[in-house]
Amino acid sequence: MALGEKGMKRILIVLTLFAMLPPFYITAQAQPAAKLPRVARLSPSTATADEVVLAGFRQGLREHGWVENKNITLEYRFADGKTDRLAELAAELVRLQVDVILSGATVGAQAAKRATSTIPIVMVTTGDPVAAGLVASLARPGGNLTGVTALGQELSGKRLELLKEALPGINHIAVLSNPTNPDSKFSVKEVEAAANDLGVKLKVHEVGDPTKFDAAFKTMSAERAGAVLVLTDSMLFTHRKRIVELAAQNRLPAMYPISEYANVGGLMFYGANFPDMYRRAAAFVDKILKGAKPADLPIEQPTKFELVINLKAAKQIGLTIPPNVLARADRVIR
């Protein structure tokens, strides 16, 4: 169809106006949307168990202006308690060329570090990253890894001390440990030193397979253990509900390394607040995305530790917590 005189005039006007636009405006309109930075979560645990700490991490991101799926993308990889899968998952994240890896536990940080020496890694762990060979020092980590650590091995002795205060009459305490966890041997040494000072007999029960929990608690009961101390470990944490149930069934007072044990019915917890540690880890991610190097960011340690006592759990096993111990609790579950 032939264009009339008016149609030709309209086309000429549009072309003229377009020609008058600044070149940078035309170029800007042609550019694709900016790529969102990608932060990967590498966890030895399950998605369900991880949600508690991830809530703290997302809160920390929001405090620094980062909102998931708005101006930042989060990739999730969970080993579901099978730590031998971490190497494969870490390699997958490296292939995706994520901007930062947020690793959980010492085993997660080790897997991430073995997978890459260039992608920044922010760890959250209870272990000693220096002893584990992850960093040169807490003040100057060096390399591509930094983050937050609770130095949980050093707290193991304090947990034993609190357990003895709550149960002054006990002289035999069982220790539940995962032998595949590289931090466990350090924690056991701390507990043994504390037990020697307290005059308490220890028996370490090593369980690397959750199907062996029932047998381990049966043995503790048969050996007349007066209480059980659970060491920090991602596999044990993943199955915390079952461990708490078995402690109750065997009427064993228990001290746990992470507050979520107490939240699902465990008797006592002493240590750092894990969701808050992940909230603080978000500050490291923020700095790295803005250009900071992990090597220049000192590793942080908690400044506050809390004691949680679950009176419901105490009543279930017929235990009375001494008033002096109860008075020291930061939180009491009634």
Globally, the shape reads elongated
List segments where confidence is low: pLDDT < 50 over at least 5 consecutive residues: 24-32
Radius of gyration: 26 Å
N- and C-termini, Cα separation:
84 Å
Q: Count structural domains.
A: 2
What's the CATH class label of the largest domain?
A: Alpha Beta
Helix content: 40-55%
Strand order of the largest sheet: 7-6-8-9-10-11-12
Element string (H = helix, E = strand):
HHEHEHEHEEHEHEHEHHEHEHEHHE
Q: How would you classify the helix and strand content by structural class?
A: alpha/beta
Would you identify the CATH architecture of the largest domain? 3-Layer(aba) Sandwich
The largest sheet, given as strand count, sense and whether it forms a barrel, is:
7 strands, mixed
| Approximate strand percentage | 15-25%
By CATH, the topology of the largest domain is Rossmann fold
Number of strands: 12
Report the average pLDDT across residues: 90
The CATH H-level superfamily of the largest domain is: Response regulator
Number of helices: 14
